[in-house]
Amino acid sequence: MAVTIPAPSTTAVVPGAHVEPVPELAPGRLLAGRYQMLERLGEGGMGVVWRARSLGLDMEVAIKVIHPAARIPNARERLLREARVAARVVHPAAARVLDFGVAEGEIPFLVMEHIQGRALSTLLREDGPLSPVAAVRLLLPVLGALDEAHRHGIVHRDVKPGNILLAEERGRVMPKLIDFGIAGLSPSPWASKLAFYPPLYGTPRTMAPEQARGGSDADPRVDIWGACLVLHQALGGAPADIGRDGAEHERLGRPAVLATEPELWAILARGLEISPANRWPTARALGASLARWGLVRGITADSAGSALTEAWIDG
Fold first, then answer.
1. pLDDT at position 190, please?
2. Contact 88, 147 (CB under 8 A)
3. Which residue, 21, 134, 194, 271, has fewest beta-carbon neighbours within 10 Å?
């Protein structure tokens, strides 16, 4: 059964962007002459997601038709550039970006790997919080994907349970982080040769504090915040509370399940520091700390079966 990608109730859009309805699509319709639309999967602030078939490759794909709200100056060029860079992010826990195009009416669309499986947000809503061990094992592959993206100068900017799909591969759970193709390019030293653009969007209740303030200096540490917030929510913690002006975050309390896990709470709390300078500096540093925590407790592999020592300690 195809996954339904959850649509967040609110999404931040660049001020001044003109909001128009997404062009009407229907099963059977051709998009850009080469993609046959099969099934509407979901809709969010960024656009509508469809399951479709690539006529050229004869394979199913997921297509996100971008809302005209994103049509700010140079949006088409921005999305094309970001999609090209995102296509170079090759990691088992990152949903591949396969193509980019412009549909009738000058509406950009993004073609991604089609993934079958529940979103982490759905799992948490339907099944409840995870144990510390299960949550850490699930997050580590995602951190690996973020580490690879940051090496290419890509900041995801919207890491949240709804953007992590849980695919089954060879009897194991492989989390897949989606929406890399609509992520922002980083202004950090990782991307010194890439042009920087301000962020197009993000989800307010999961934004890092510096994103909520509307700054254009977001770097990979916003993804450290996002990944740690995912872990916090997976353990039963409440979502962040953003003040009316979007500038104040309530400090997130310790999930009850971590009352007997002070070491894990210390790792998590550092990633949720209000100041980016006080967070883990990289996804690899955070992942290595979580891997060491797991190894002490006898965990030898993440949810996808990758050995922790090889992936995070010796690598």
1. 32
2. no
3. 21
Tally Cβ neighbours within 10 Å of residue 117.
20
**How many C-beta neighbours within 10 Å does residue 84 have?**
12
Query: Does residue 200 share a domain with residue 85?
Result: no
What CATH number should be reported for the domain holding residue 45? 3.30.200.20
Cβ atoms of 198 and 185 closer than 8 Å: no
Last residue within a domain, chosen from 79, 113, 147: 113
On whether residue 160 sits in a domain, the answer given is yes
The answer on 129 and 145 residing in a single domain is: yes
- In the chain, the number of structural domains is 2
* Residue 217 annotated among the catalytic residues of the structure: no
Cα separation, 65 vs 133, in Å, equals: 37
d(CA 214, CA 212): 5
Q: Tell me, yes or no, whether 122 and 24 share the same domain.
A: no
The answer to whether 72 and 14 have CB atoms below 8 angstroms apart is yes
pLDDT at 122 over 90: yes
Q: How many CB atoms lie within 10 A of CB 122?
A: 18
Whole-structure pTM value: 0.82
pLDDT of residue 240: 60
Q: Please tell me which residue in 158, 219, 223, 302 is annotated as part of the active site.
A: 158
Compare 34 and 196 and report the one with higher pLDDT: 34
Distances in Å between the Cα of 224 and the Cα atoms of 122, 163, 207, 267, 286 are 22, 15, 11, 11, 8
pLDDT in tens, 53-102: 999 999 999 998 877 655 555 666 777 777 887 888 899 999 999 998 88
Q: Determine if residue 176 is labeled as part of a ligand binding site.
A: no
Helix (H, G, I), strand (E, B) or coil at 284: helix
- In eight-state DSSP terms, residue 56 is T
For residue 291, give both structure tokens.
């891997």
* pLDDT higher than threshold 80 for residue 20: no
End-to-end CA distance of the chain: 36
Residue 105 lies in a domain: yes
